[in-house]
Amino acid sequence: MRDDEAYGAGDPGALEALFGARTEAGALIGLAEAYRRSGWRAARLDPLGLALPEAPEELEPGRYGLEPADAAPLRAAYCGTIGWEIGHVQDRARREWLAARAEEPWRPAPAEQAGALDMIARGEHLEATFGRRMPGTKTFGLAGAEGYLVLTDAVIRAGVALGARHVFAGGMHRGRFTQMGLNFGKPLTRLVAEAQGTPEMPFETGAASDVPYHLGFEGQARIGGHDVTMWVSPHPSHLSVVGPVMQGRARAIAEREGAGAVLSVIYHTDAAIAGQGINMEVFQLSGLAPFHIGGTIHLILNNQIGFTTEMREARTARSCADIAKLVEAPVLHVNGDDPEALLRVGQVAAEYRARFGADIVVDMVCYRRKGHNEIDEPHFTQPMAYKAIDAMPKLSEQYGSRIGQKPDVGGFASELDRAFGAAKQWAPNGPPPAPGLATDIEARLCDPVETGVDIETLRRLGRHVTAAPEGMALHPKVARFLDARAAAIETGGGIDWATAEALALASLADQGTPVRFGGQDSIRGAFTQRHLALFDQQTGVRHIVLDGLAARVDLYNAPLIEHAILAFEYGRSTLAPGALAVWEAQFGDFLNVCQPVFDQVVACAEDRWLFESALTILLPHGLDGGGPDHATARPERLLMACAKGNMRLVNASTPANFFHALRRQMVGPLSKPLVVLSPKALLRHPGCVSRLDEMGPGSGFRTVIGDDVENASRAVLCTGKLYHFLEAERRQRGIEDVAMIRLEQLYPLDEAAIAAALKPCRKAELVWAQEEPENFGYFGWLDRRLEDIAGRRWRLVSRPASPSASAGPKVWDDRHLKAVIDAALDLR
Description:
Helices cover 38% and strands 13% of the residues. The relative contact order is 0.08. The N and C termini lie far apart (75 Å). It is globular and about 95 Å long. A hairpin with a 6-residue loop joins strand 10 and strand 11 (542-544). The chain is of the alpha/beta class.
């Protein structure tokens, strides 16, 4: 920042102190700074003229001893149909670059003018044709915002000219059909057929698919002499969810080809960007290394209304784009009825992103000629606005008159008519049936997979992950931790949970599988169990223990953000199938915060849009006496989302089985998300240890672990942590007629393995035991399924039903757990 920039533009006294006397040069500097801060408020942004430009006092030239004529160049630059909101950008180079773009003369070439007019006219014709030939169909049209087509086209063309070869777009669905056909090249016949209700994929695919205006598109385009991949994300109705999913996919390509090869665009509406908290998270992540994709261009279709909610009811901020100031992203406000201004800001946005690798926002102020959808009546609630809208001529007429041209859409109209004719016979010819949606997928997900590793290889990797650089001054507790871990691996016994995890990650990387592992405080471990990074206590230098293996290992600590990060990691995993991706919540109940992503993407994206993902989600779970919070990952919610083999849900009871669950994600033949109810109390439980040979050759994940008890009077089936507490009590009391069976994989249920484990217990009473309250946990989902397997009823042992996950005082919680143990072992 220059010295003169540090002074307030509205403070002539400060400028006088800086220069010694109030000079015209100093005054002009102050006025220029005022326009860079507040000029956008005086710009002519509303096409309807209902939101009048403001007159900020700091823009008065008299405050600086200047004449009105002195302000004319600045007023022309900053107060036309583009409002350059750049005063909050503190980086000197970025701010000066933006100011230079704002203040330089610019006019579009005649070819650009003609192209913009043609784009607008084609958009108007497409939507009018849809309205005429498909009356009553919801299309969430673009009418009143046709300039968005010009803006999108300008961004894409400029981005490709600057080196992008992959365009990723995601977000709102207003004008979705029109943009798909005109901006992204979706074939018109397919577009029309899907809009009329023809499924996008054959019934035999086995997918649920989605409504037409939620569908995405992937294709190739030829732009400026370059071959470009276009990908527009499908989305649920909660549209802001897909922004970080799209960014995650862009990250996967950026890692392979460089950030410059990727152009990422998120579409917003004014209501959504101002109202949805995930947008704040997306901006916050934009500058952090694990999530950096070279910047995102955010395009806001600001039709100055939500469904029926007006701006004054929708936000307290002056602008819907104020959230961008969180990361000092510049905001270019633009009048949506000025195609030339749209061409300009689209070009500038692409140049800024390419030059600085940072986010930028374009806020296109427009209007909505119809209601929220084609059936809605907007005059009910906004009569004055719609009087003005009804009187507005079409944008093609306005702009054509301005440049002295008439658009010719005859060729496009014929093409669209042919598309409507061909759409009657159009049928999807792909993709082929998805393996992940096969009718026998649940059984196939239970098939054994050998995931063991040579013992000497494990020992070699153990030495790798427990070795500190020579001379590193370790914290004494960390040094003891490494010594204990090294000894366990060398002797082959007492392998705890975190050590098995480290060996799983190291073994995959050693075999050439890239690993990405992160979450809140994940590198050390929220429970001080992991220590994948060592810190020199004298210099602060960090050493990652998984560095130096055959494949890249990315470890990261994340900000306190779940919603956007889970979406980002899921999106990235769909384009990085050969890499292990692990996201860890600090506590399992943090999934509550990103439940929309889990429900609308992780659980069903394969069924709706044929996404394949092997993302692993670790959710610490266990009622360990810490109160109602951080006790549960809500397995009952997870199980409710399980169907058609859409994921795996594991609650392993041994470190070795967790080792195999992680490796199975990459070694196994099927890509499915894995959710692990990872432990807290078991991390240091003396009974929760494994032998190294349990991870050796010939071994693999065990869906069920049975018990060798002959003539058992009772068979207790449980999962995860509870087994160790029940087993300790069974041994202490010398109970020999109770069989303990562990259900390690909750979904898909390995029915054959459960039946085999129950075979020696034909006369035993059958009990399902869980530490969770009756209305929480697993039994509501398992009850009838277990009954079908066993051919008889099961008795539930649990805490009493409760609105809270567990009791607050630890003494009460301990009492409840003791009651569960006693009831399960018949000790009452």
